Amino acid sequence: MSKIRWGVLSTANIGRTQFIPALLRAKNSEIIAIASRGSKAHEVAKEFNIPRAYEDYNALLHDKDVDAVYIPLPNHLHKKWVIEASKQGKHVLCEKPATLTSDEVIEMVQICREQNVKFMEGFMYQFHPQHDRVKEIITSGEIGEVKLIRASHSYYMENRDTNIRMRKEMGGGSLYDVGCYAIHAIRNISHSEPIEVRAHSQIDLVSGIDLSTHGYFDLANGIPAFFDCSFDMVRRQEYEVIGTKGTIRVPFAFRPDFNGHVGLVIVQTTGSTREEKIHGDIFLLEVEHFSNAILNDTHPINSGNSAIYNVRALEACYESIQAGALVKV
């Protein structure tokens, strides 16, 4: 097998605008099927020349020619369809957050292992090479000893009456939607896990979801970290690493595709500022990484424990918000 044959569950916007085009660009992948609840799959299949369109998710999962599926469904549906896909022998790339509780992620990961299929949570941002460059700079000692990490992800949400991210029962809220990126970036860059969390939210009185959340982590390696996320602020997608000798700022951390796929790493030390521009097609890199893991029988990043740990951190944030207190992870 030289290419992984993909199916996509749903006609979600992220799939149509980003993931399917990435599949079409990938050297080791091809898309052969798409499914929707209703007839929209036929429209999308025609748009992208996808050979097969199904009006039922299970019908796609029973297609024996499909090797892997991409699941961009609403958050509360992730567990069900990851499990259903794995039971049909499909490898699964599921959009973030993997699901809504750590118990659910543990169950999903365990079933995927039992079915001998690969599972990966879709944090596409991490495939951009700018983040490896940040780690290289930290390791080099240029900014000294790391003393603090800050991460922010926000945008101002329009059309709130119709947006599923405003529906609590579907896993809505800024923490699940964009805060999960900031938390993942802190974990990814620090190579450490939060052991204590303090978080606070501005709650929408009608829907009950968090419009904005900000929080503090104590990491296991002793580094403190702050994060914030919001549906109520201007678009920001950045993190900063502060050391004893300087700082590293990454202003296009999570969606460098909004900047022509160009990431920017800004290093500032006493009397010196340097900017490094780094190109990377995050959705293409994500697709090819997961397909290569299947083809070569290797472990994809963000599988198993990483997905569990990220959702545990989210859970701890929500627990802290409800309790109004510091919470151990």
Automatic annotation (TrEMBL):
Residues 4-123 form the Gfo/Idh/MocA-like oxidoreductase N-terminal domain. Keywords: Oxidoreductase. GO terms for molecular function: nucleotide binding; oxidoreductase activity. Signal peptide: none annotated. The keyword Oxidoreductase applies. The keyword ATP-binding does not apply. InterPro entries: Gfo/Idh/MocA-like_OxRdtase_N (IPR000683), Gfo/Idh/MocA_domain (IPR050984), GFO_IDH_MocA-like_dom (IPR055170), NAD(P)-bd_dom_sf (IPR036291). Residues 133-249 form the GFO/IDH/MocA-like oxidoreductase domain. It holds the Pfam family GFO_IDH_MocA_C3. PANTHER family: OXIDOREDUCTASES, TRANS-1,2-DIHYDROBENZENE-1,2-DIOL DEHYDROGENASE. Belongs to the Gfo/Idh/MocA family. This is Gfo/Idh/MocA family oxidoreductase. It comes from Bacillus timonensis.
